[in-house]
Amino acid sequence: MEKNNIVLSPDILKEKKILVVDDNIMNRMVANIILQEFNVLVFEAADGQEAVSFLQNNPCDLILMDLQMPVLDGYKASEIIRKELNLDIPIIALTASDIEEDKEKCFEVGMNDYLYKPFDKKQFLQIICNWIR
User: In the chain, where are the structural domains located?
Assistant: First the structure.
């Protein structure tokens, strides 16, 4: 796959650690399958609280964060990651919402990028590569 003269080969993301945070097990599974093709070490959390707890003791290269989840949503989890854990890990919002206010709120709480679900595989991988480099 190629975009902007960047070839996405299995080695480009090899052994990068990505945390996939989503309350929908199917969404986590789809992301996991794609990322494992590129030899990514994938970790999963079913809500924002699980993500925050995981990140307290485990380093990651990138976070894929759903916005609407029980217990702790993606907005609040991102705020905690930025303000309390003081982590500058790239956070990519994964959401079905295309409302401009939601997108703006993502950036306000410290997320770095935004991707709509269902996502295009090439776009998904390109955004990850852009932030992980």
Answer: 11-132
Q: Angle CA(13)–CA(84)–CA(32) in degrees, nearest 5? A: 25
Whole-number Å distance between alpha carbons of 10 and 84: 34
Q: Which residue has the higher pLDDT, 59 or 99?
A: 59
Superfamily covering domain 11-132 = Response regulator (3.40.50.2300)
Q: What's the whole-model pTM score?
A: 0.90
Asked if the model's pLDDT at residue 63 lies above 60, the reply is: yes
Say what the pLDDT of residue 2 is: 40
Give CA–CA dist 72/70, Å, rounded: 6
- Mean per-residue pLDDT, 117-131: 88
